[in-house]
Amino acid sequence: APIDxxxxxxxxxxYVGGPTCAVIALKCPHITVTIVDLNQSRIDAWNxxxxxxxxxxxxxxxxxxxxxxxxxxxxxxxxKAILEADLIFVSVNTPTKxxxxxxxxxxxxxxxxLATRRIAAVATSNKIVVEKSTVPxxxxxxxxxxxxxxxxxxxxxDILSNPEFLAEGTAIKDLLSPxxxxxxxxxxxxxxxxxxxxxNVYANWVPKERILTVGLWSSELSKLAANxxxxxxxxxxxxxxxxxxxxxxxxxxxxxxxxxxxxIGPKFLRASVGFGGSCFQKDILNLVYLSESLHLPEVxxxxxxxxxxxxxxxxxxxxxxxxTLFKTITGKHIAVLGFAFKADTGDTRESAAITLIRxxxxxxxxVTIYDPKVEESQIWQDLSEACPNTPLETIKKYVTIVHNVxxxxxxxxxxxxxxxxxxxxxxxxxxVYDHMTKPAFVFDGRLLIDADKLRKIGFKVKVIxxxx
Length: 468
Ligand code: NAD
Ligand code: UGA
Fold this sequence. Notes:
This protein is an alpha/beta fold. It folds into 2 domains: 7-206, 3-Layer(aba) Sandwich (Rossmann fold), CATH 3.40.50.720; 281-288 and 300-463, NAD(P)-binding Rossmann-like Domain (Rossmann fold), CATH 3.40.50. Helix content is 45%, strand content 13%. The protein has 18 helices and 14 strands. Strands 3-2-1-4-5-6 form a 6-stranded parallel sheet, with helices on both faces. Strands 11-10-9-12-13-14 form a 6-stranded parallel sheet, sandwiched between helices. Strand 9 (333-337), helix 13 and strand 10 (366-370) form a beta-alpha-beta unit. Helix 11 (280-293) packs antiparallel against helix 12.
């Protein structure tokens, strides 16, 4: 029979582990949830008196305020939390490998393996071990081998796959009412019992028909498949945006018309300067690598094109800026509004803004950045990594970070909108125009502005997916 889960440990207090297990604690007051991490400063931030949490996510502070100290704990004592738990989420990072076999494509499973080995070394009683991290298909098998070969004191391990589908910026909303919760298990008696034990945790707030239970490998692959198909929609619409710019068709109208077909649906069809975020590119490359390892080169090439199209979209946008500013931006001043990879997050991983600014710097333009949430230190770190051959002092000669839109745009030749922050909808464009160098250009990479209104003020305007 399925065990009654009373203590949960989550290894990894990042964007996924933190919010996910905070919501579990909120909704299951009878379960003690301990989130552990090796990173002391991250744990200190989760425990901070003034709730200056390590990640920004709307609604997260409220959840942590309600549960922290009651049945939600953050700690660096990984071993103690493992020892006490009935169920352990492994929610560590799985970045793209930078060197070795599969470099540039395969997922780096080192953190997952280290966490798994720790569980095996510490556990003295039965544990349900849950893959929460996004991993290649059949990773659970490697985890099981590691756990079983190192188990002691008669401890048994059941492994589940429970991928996370939350999107940053809406994490709390997504966790409180998920489209679905997916749990994969071996189809053995023990596997199905473990699956039921985890399903019972979610059943405290998720309707039963939204809790899907499948085989382990299907669950692992479904996560990669969902991200690949979401990203594919964006690359498809972005490919069409290039045709719009060349023909005078309008990508907003095309998306609307196409999305009205109930088989296609209206969501996730917004043309942009390119998708960013820590996962889409990583997970597709992971799928490409998996396909190649399975000797399926046509399948690999098919998914690879989704990433290639995204790179093309970013470089096409940079080129539009250069071409429109009379084919040179050397020594010109450009304001970039938004640095996060999407609105409502301070996360910058793989943000399109980084690529654009790198391109502008390679033309020796001056760039002024404003983002409502991203920390300055993060911007410097991202730009240093994007321009590995340029010392930070040189980057700082060309780049300025400011704290509001008007300051960013003052005395600039062009404004580039890179993130769809809501506050950019309320920009007083007349004031911006009055302060800019003329002719004043606006490049909208997020379909955010009313182009006709701006043209009436006097701006020269270029919008993604519009020919005018
Ligand atoms: P993250 O980098 O924000 O957090 C991972 C944390 O794990 C870090 O704080 C790190 O210090 C910690 N860690 C690593 N190894 C550890 C160990 N052995 N013991 C204890 N702590 C350890 O990463 P994230 O964005 O939360 O992503 C985690 C996983 O979830 C990834 O596989 C990712 O693909 C997947 N995912 C992410 C999102 C998202 O929106 N960010 C959504 C769905 C799935
Ligand atoms: C994405 C998925 O939406 C989540 O389901 C998944 O759990 C997560 O990846 C993950 O595995 O990490 P996330 O990257 O946080 O979530 O954010 P999205 O809302 O998917 O946006 C990703 C990128 O696509 C952003 O840069 C966004 O601006 C861009 N985008 C999104 C578009 O350009 N057009 C759209 O129509 C939608």
